[in-house]
Design goal:
Structural class: mainly beta
Order of helices and strands: EEEEEEEEE
Low-confidence stretches: 6-12, 104-112
Largest sheet: 5 strands, antiparallel
Radius of gyration: 13 Å
Helix content: under 10%
Shape: globular
CATH class: Mainly Beta
CATH architecture: Sandwich
Number of helices: 0
Number of domains: 1
């Protein structure tokens, strides 16, 4: 599964921030990170952690809003193949869209 989802996290103390989980699966990848409008397109600030069977995870928090992002897999920038929405980027590729809603039920962009 490759996706970004908004999820409930009881440890979140800031009511404006929303927990987000980025997920990507690649058994052959040696490094995976996320770059987007939420981190000024700096992949080194959002490295994902490998779990079993090549599954990569990153839990983060974002303010409500719409964000563009891409996965960076072994230095290759790729859109989230399971994203429901995407937009063209200035480099001829596509950026995935993540929407963090003000309430959890209002808008989940991706299905697990």
């Amino acid at each position: 599964m490759n996706t970004a989802t908004e999820h409930i996290d009881d440890h979140n103390h800031d009511p404006q921030m929303r927990p987000v989980r980025f997920e990507y699966t690649s058994p052959t990848a040696t490094a995976v990170s996320v770059a987007g409008t939420f981190n000024n397109w700096q992949p080194h600030t959002q490295s994902m952690h490998r779990t079993e069977n090549g599954h990569w995870l990153l839990d983060s928090v974002l303010a409500p809003g719409n964000y563009e992002y891409r996965f960076v897999v072994d230095d290759q920038w790729i859109p989230d193949p399971l994203a429901k929405r995407s937009v063209p980027n200035p480099f001829g590729g596509m950026n995935s869209i993540l929407t963090c809603s003000r309430v959890f039920e209002a808008s989940e962009e991706h299905a697990k």
